[in-house]
Amino acid sequence: MQDKRSTADLDSFDLILFLWARRRLIIGVTLLGMITGVIAAFVIRPLYESEVIMFPAITNSISKALLSEQSTGRDDILALGDEQDAEQLLQMLESDRVRDRVSETFELMEVYRIKPDAKHRMSDLQKAYDEHIKFEYTKFGSVRVTVRDPKAERAADIANYIADQVDSVWKEMAQERADKGFAVVERKVKQLEDNIRMMDDSLRQLRQLGVHDYHTQSERYNEYLGAAIVKGDQRAIREFEDRFKVLAEHGGAYVTIQDRIFNETKRLSILRMKLEQAQADRDSDLPHKFVVNRAQASDKKAYPIRWLVVAISTIAALLLALLLIVVQENIRKIRASHVA
Question: Is the pTM value of this prediction over 0.70?
């Protein structure tokens, strides 16, 4: 047992002596790695980080939230959205429209040092954009926009600009459908108003012929005719018989037109309400998110972490030196075996 322990101690001692004999190589490569790390830490382009945190809104239609009589829990304009709403917000943030506007407004091709005449400039721009601008769904149900940029003020401006563009892009996407929907309802309302106006003109002509209210007139004429028959007033009997002829001839048309006007007026009331809702959706400027924190310029660089760069470079150099020693020793053994 003591022999085994002595052998282990001897092996450890031999390893220390082995490494000590090659200390110059180890120290030299390690120092070279450290110097390289220091140079890299100061050469790497520093980046400042800013972020915006926002919650998605639960509703996108102001007409359903405020003008509809039948509202649900998802029609509350003050309610926060769920995971599905957050995913929709993320898709909007990652859309080409937002990226193109940000790239054009802040001249990101120049910021990211991409040559305008490069063959793959658009692919390089998209790659650099994805590396510097991140969107993520947090565990609290919010959406975080993180921007890294060589200038602190610009990083904050980009983050805030992206948050502001969500509403603009969302409205533009919905505007086309809202305009067409409003136009369809407006056309139906005008068509229905014209039909009701024509039917009113027809009723006016029937009233000029003596048909004012078919049901009331029929009832009254029957009463008056019965009274005239009881009295034996032939002149009154002939007069009411003539009036009955007018009712018989035009009463059916009057009733039909009157019923149609009643039904069409109800339809017109519903369509006017829909037109009001469509107009509200078309002109709506309702935000699609709640901004919790707007971005502010950072006073401290987020990248690179210089001590970490130096530490990683030094450790990597040390491991490389040990690897070189192992390779060198194996090559020596192989040559010695061939010579033997």
Answer: no
